[in-house]
Each structure stands twice: as C-alpha cells, then as structure tokens.
C-alpha cells in the first residue's frame, strides 16, 4: 500500500487543524481511540480496487507461486477493505484474514459475507497467528502468508515471522511495503530506525530464503509498493521462477566448530 500518515499527523484543512493549539493533543488522542475525524474512516470504498495494490506483475507472480507450491490456505494480516482477501478466496481453498480495526473489519465482513471459504478475525495479527500456530489443521497445510498489517509505528512483522518459522514447514510469505534494494521506484514503509521494512527487520530463520521482484518498478502497475517473498526450507525451490531475482538466505551459513 502507499505510505500512510502517522496517527500523530495534523492535516492542514482537517477539523483538528482548525481547533486551538491547546486542544489539538486531546483531539488527536480522541481520534486515535475512536477514529473520529480520521480521513481513513470516511469511506468504505477501497483506495486500491484491485488486489495487491493493483500491482498486476506482483499478482501474476504470487499466483504462479501458489500454483507451483500447491498452496491450499492463505493467511492475510491486515484485511483493510478485504479486496485482496476476496481475490485470494478465488484461488486457494480457504482464507483467514485478521484486522485490528473494527471499522475495516465490518467493511470487509460486509464485502465477504457470501464467501464461504473466508474466515475473518477482529484482533491483533500476533494473537491470531499464535492461535493458528497451535492447530495442526492449519500448520499442516501449504500456506501463503500475506503480511500487510503494518500501519504505523507498531510493526508486528518480526513476531509474525518468528511464529510462522517455528510452526509452518511449508510456507510462502509475501510481505507488502518492503524495500526493494536498487529500485527506488518501489515505495516502502519507513517510520525510522527499527521500524523500516527492509532486510534488517527479518529474523534469521534457518534455511529460509528470500527473493525480491526482478521486474523494474516502471514495468509494474498500481501503487508500485515494494515487496519480498520468503520461503520455508521445503518450498525454497519455488523461488526459481521468472519475475523473481536471485534468492538469498535469511540466516548466515552454519559453520563447523
Ligand atoms: C495496508 S492495509 C491492508 C491492505 C490489504 N491487505 C489489501 O491488500 O487490501 C493495513 C491494514 O492492517 C491493519 N492493521 C494494522 N495493524 C494491525 C495488527 N497488528 N493486526 C491486524 N491488523 C492490523 C490496519 O488497520 C489496516 O486495515
């Protein structure tokens, strides 16, 4: 997704900016608790009406990965309007998606009310992934994770990946809003040191591999957000495919003592 404003921003022209200076901190707090006055709640129309930020090249690569690995289940963090959720439900057997914001949860629930193979959760992505990670009916499946629950200073990404790495042996993980080194045309989330979506944020999962898109950002459509795909050891072979650059290891090679 495109860069999101921090919750502490006061937009010129917003209701909050018209309040006296002394009243603005309280109004910002009220907005963060209730959503009042926040731009992102004013519409239930998705900003990107197509899945994966309307990035067609990315969508084609993910579809190829799903087919090649025979993915049966998709788990998405950050449902938002449910656009990507809805698409995933057409290409895998079952989809689980988690959204922390009650407003977006309700928008997605309405959109997906007739999708019988979709389960939506209202809550924090870490809590839901943990709950799924102790159920063999989930961890035994070949699973595509679409990690997109980053929207501000709280980045659940490292915790999400650590749980996935510990419990799923056949997983493909796609992370949205991730830096693509060498191609600044792909946007990525950068909220400062430690909250920047780049390779340094990834836990050193043993024998996992990662790959960036090899397609230049100018050839991509839609929001042109950067991304990365990671695979568990059993599925590392699927990274050898058109559209992906040379894979690399998430952990340093093991050395003999
Ligand atoms: C970029 S949007 C997701 C877009 C969606 N995946 C799509 O492709 O259309 C990010 C969403 O993550 C949600 N979110 C942020 N932090 C979260 C968390 N810790 N757990 C679950 N959802 C979270 C936000 O409320 C927001 O709706």
Question: Care to describe what's here?
Answer:
There is one protein chain. The protein is α/β, with parallel strands linked by helices and 257 residues long. It folds into two domains: 8-42, no CATH class; 51-249, Vaccinia Virus protein VP39 (Rossmann fold, 3-Layer(aba) Sandwich), CATH 3.40.50. Helix content is 27%, strand content 14%. The protein has an eight-stranded mixed sheet, with helices on both faces. Helix 4 links the parallel strand 1 and strand 2 (94-99). Helix 6 (125-133) runs parallel beside helix 8. The radius of gyration is 19 Å and the shape is globular. Residues 1-20 and 27-42 have low confidence and may be disordered. S-adenosylmethionine (SAM) binds next to strand 1, helix 4 and strand 2.
- The CATH fourth-level homologous superfamily of the largest domain: Vaccinia Virus protein VP39
Q: What would CATH call the architecture of the largest domain? A: 3-Layer(aba) Sandwich
Radius of gyration: 19 Å
Helix percent reads 25-40%
The whole-number mean of residue pLDDT values reads 86
Q: Approximately how much beta-strand content do the residues carry?
A: 5-15%
* CATH topological fold name of the largest domain: Rossmann fold
Distance between the termini: 45 Å
């Amino acid at each position: 997704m495109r860069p999101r404003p921090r919750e502490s921003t006061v937009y010129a022209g917003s209701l909050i900016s018209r309040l006296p200076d002394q009243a603005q901190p309280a109004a910002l707090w009220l907005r963060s608790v209730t959503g009042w006055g926040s731009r992102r709640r004013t519409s239930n129309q998705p900003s990107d009406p197509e899945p994966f930020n309307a990035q067609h090249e990315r969508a084609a690569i993910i579809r190829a990965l799903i087919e090649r690995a025979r993915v049966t289940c998709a788990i998405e963090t950050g449902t938002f309007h449910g656009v990507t959720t809805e698409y995933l439900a057409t290409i895998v057997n079952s989809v689980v998606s988690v959204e922390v914001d009650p407003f977006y949860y309700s928008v997605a629930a309405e959109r997906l009310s007739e999708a019988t193979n979709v389960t939506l959760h209202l809550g924090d992505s870490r809590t839901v992934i943990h709950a799924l990670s102790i159920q063999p009916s989930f961890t035994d499946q070949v699973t595509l994770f679409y990690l997109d629950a980053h929207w501000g200073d709280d980045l659940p990404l490292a915790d999400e990946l650590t749980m996935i790495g510990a419990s799923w042996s056949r997983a493909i993980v796609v992370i949205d809003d991730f830096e693509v080194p060498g191609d600044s045309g792909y946007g990525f989330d950068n909220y400062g040191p430690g909250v920047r979506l780049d390779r340094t944020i990834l836990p050193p999962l043993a024998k996992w591999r990662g790959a960036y898109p090899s397609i230049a950002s100018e050839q991509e459509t839609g929001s042109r957000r950067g991304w990365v795909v990671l695979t568990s050891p059993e599925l590392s072979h699927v990274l050898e495919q058109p559209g992906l650059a040379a894979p690399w290891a998430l952990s340093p090679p093991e050395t003999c003592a």
